[in-house]
Amino acid sequence: MKFLSEYRDPEMVHAYTAELHRITSRPWTLMEICGGQTHSLVKNGLLDMLPKQITMVHGPGCPVCVTSVSVIDEAIWLAQQPNVILCSFGDMLRVPGSTISLLEAKAQGADVRILYSPLEAVELAQQHPDKQVVFFAVGFETTAPANALSVVHAAELGLHNYSILASHVLVPPAMEAILGDPENKIDAFLAAGHVCTIMGTEEYDPIAEKYQTPIVVTGFEPVDLLQGILMAVQQLEKGEWKVENQYARSVQREGNRMAQDTIQQVFAVSDRVWRGIGNIPQSGYEVNTRYQKYNARLKFNIDLVAAEENKDCISGDIMKGLKKPFQCPNFGTRCKPEHPLGAPMVSSEGACAAYYQYSGQVSEIIETV
Amino acid sequence: MNLSCPMPKFDFDVITMGHGGGGLLTHRLLQSGVFDVLKNDLLDQQHDGASFELNGKLAFSTDSYVISPIFFPGGNIGELAVNGTVNDLAMCGAVPKYLSLAFIIEEGMRMEALWEVLVSIKNAAAKAGVQIVTGDTKVVEKGKGDQIFINTSGIGVVHPKAAIHHNRVKEGDVIIVSGQLAQHGIAIMSKRQGLSFETDIVSDTTNLNHTILQLIEQFGDAIKFLRDPTRGGLASVLNELAEQTNLGYLIEQEQLPIDEQVEGACEMLGLDPLYVANEGLFVLVVDAAVAESVLKQLQQDANGQSARIIGKVVNTHPGKVMLKSRIGGHRVVGYLTGEQLPRIC
Hints:
The structure holds two protein chains of two kinds.
Chain A: H1 2-5, H2 10-23, E1 28-34, H3 35-43, E2 54-61, H4 63-66, H5 69-79, E3 84-88, H6 102-107, E4 112-114, H7 118-127, E5 132-139, H8 144-157, E6 162-169, H9 171-180, E7 188-192, H10 193-199, H11 205-211, E8 215-218, H12 222-238, E9 243-245, H13 257-266, E10 267-274, E11 278-287, H14 296-299, H15 315-319, H16 351-359, H17 364-368
Parallel strand pairs in A: 1-2, 1-7, 3-4, 3-5, 5-6, 7-8, 8-9
Antiparallel strand pairs in A: 6-11, 10-11
Helix pairs in contact in A: 2-12, 3-16, 7-8, 8-13
Chain B: H1 24-38, H2 41-44, E1 58-65, E2 71-72, E3 75-76, H3 77-91, E4 94-106, H4 111-128, E5 131-140, E6 148-158, E7 174-177, H5 183-189, H6 209-219, E8 223-227, H7 233-245, E9 248-252, H8 260-269, E10 283-286, H9 291-299, E11 308-314, E12 321-324, E13 330-332
Helix pairs in contact in B: 1-4, 3-4, 3-6
C-alpha cells in the first residue's frame, strides 16, 4: 500500500498535531460522521494526540448501527420463508433484531449468505431459478449505486427471482436532525469522504450556512483525519463556517454523476426510521415504482409489527454525539460484542465496538503506557 | 525419495456411499489408495490401531480440518492436516513421530481430488519426517459435508532441552514472529466464492518441526514460549498469553512483517492482519539475552527469513496486549469476537 504510506507518515502526523496544539484556544466539539473515521481515530491512537480542548464525538455514520430493529426483523422474516436465499454484507449478520440476529436465523436453518457485492446476488439468482434471492441492501449513499445496479442488471436479464430489501440511509438529513436537536453540542463536522465521493459536497453548503457550522470532508487515514480536524478548528477559531474538502484526491464538488444517475434510476427518496434516533423525513432510499417488482417488501407483502428497540441501549445518544460509549452504564458489562444490546457494539463500524476493541474497555490503560 | 505418485486405475470416478460402507468398495479404496500411498511398516500391519514404543516425555495433539476451498494457492487440505498437527507437536517442543488420519468424505467427491489430497499428505509427512500409522474413512451423504473433512492426531517425543511453558515468561522477554503475517488467511479468501481477487499471495503452510528443534537444540530453555498463530491470528495468541501470565505485551506496528499485497488485501476487505489466520508461522517468547542470536539463526532458515522482533513483555497494563502504532499512538489489541467479517463500505 505504497500509495497510503504518505497518509500515515509520523512526521506529518506530528506536524498537524503540533499546529492543532498551537492554534486551539478553547473547547471545541467535533463530530466525525462516519464509523470508519471513528475506528481510524481510535485504532491509530489519534485521540490521545489531540489537544485536551478538542472533543471528538461519533456520528450516525455506521450503516449497520442505524438500521432499525424492524428492518432487521424484516430481513430475518424473509430469510425464514421457504425457498428464499437472503444475502447481505457480513456486517449485518450479528446485529440483533427484536429476538434473534441473522446469524442465529442461519444457525436455525435459514439460507443466509454473506456476499461481497450485490452483483453476486444476481448471479446467485441466475444459478438458482427455483429460489427467490433477496439482497438486504443496507448502507449510505456509498453502497447505493452498486445495489441499484444489481436491480438494473436483474431487469436486463429478465430475472423474476431477484429482489432487494432496501434500507438505505442518507447523510445530510441525519446531520440536520442532529443539528436541530436542542441538546446538540456539535461545533463542526468531519464529513465522510466515501459518501462525498459519490454525492459530492454541494448538498452540504446549505447545512453549513443554515446552522453556521463548519463541515470538512475527510478521508480515513491518520493524516487525512488530523488535517481535517485542523481545517475545522482553523475555521472555528476564525469564526467561519464553510464546506471544505480535505479529501480532494477522491472527492469532486459535483461527485460521481454516473453513480448518482444509477441511484436515481432505481431509487426514490423516502422517510426512514433510524435505530436510536427515530423517523427522519426524506432520509432514505426505497425502490421506485418503475422497478417495484424488485422491491422485496412489495413482492413478499411484508407486514410485520414494528419492533421496539432495547431500552437499555443508548445508541441514539451515542450516534447523536450526546454521549460517549464509556458513558453507557452497560458498556463492557451487560453489553459486549458477544452479547450486544445494540448495533454499535457489534458492527465493525460501530462506535462502541471501536472503543471496546481498541481501548480494552477502560480508557485508563492507554495512559499507563 | 521419489514423491511423485501416479493415480492407479480405479473403476469409479467419484466417492459414493459404498466407499464408506466397510465392504468391497471401502477395501478397494483403502488398498489401492490410502495404504498404497502412505505405506510404512506400522500402517502395513492394517490392524485396528498401531503398536509402537517411544522413550521419554511424550506430547499428544489433535486437530480437525474443515477448510473451504480445499484447494487454495500454495496448498490443499491434505498437507494442512499433516502440517497442522506436526506444528502443534513442535510448539510443545516435541519431535513429531506418528500421526493418525481420519477422513470424512462427502459423497460425490471426485476421486482425482481425493488422490491429490492423499499425495499431498504423503509428501507433507515425508517432509516432516512423520509416519501415518492408523486412520479411518467415513462417507457422508451429498450436502452433509464440504467435499472432505480431515482429522489428524499425533504423538511426539519432547526434546530433553525443551522447557516451553507460559509460566516461564517474565518481564523483559522478547517477542519474535518467524515470518509474514496473514498470508494463509488472505490466500484462502482470495479464492472464496464471491471474493475472488487477483493476487500472487500463497498460503505459507509448511512443517515447522525441524526449524523449532534446531532452535531448542541451540538455545534450550531460553526459548520460553512457542505457538503457531492459526485461527484468530497473532492477536489471539498474545491475548491468551497475556491472560495466562498476567503480564503486559507491547508490540510495535512498524516491526510487524506483513507483505504489501497482504496488507493491501486486508485494507480492501476491512480486515486486521493481526486476526487473520496463519499456517507456517510461529511466535516465540525468548530471553532478551538470546533474542538477537535467535533472530539471526531463524533468518538463515527457510521458514524464518522474514522473522522479526516485534515487541517485548512489560510490567505495565497487566493481562493486556498493547500496540504502538506507526505514528506513535497506542491502542489495545483485544480478542476478536466471532469471525472477522468484511465490512460494508
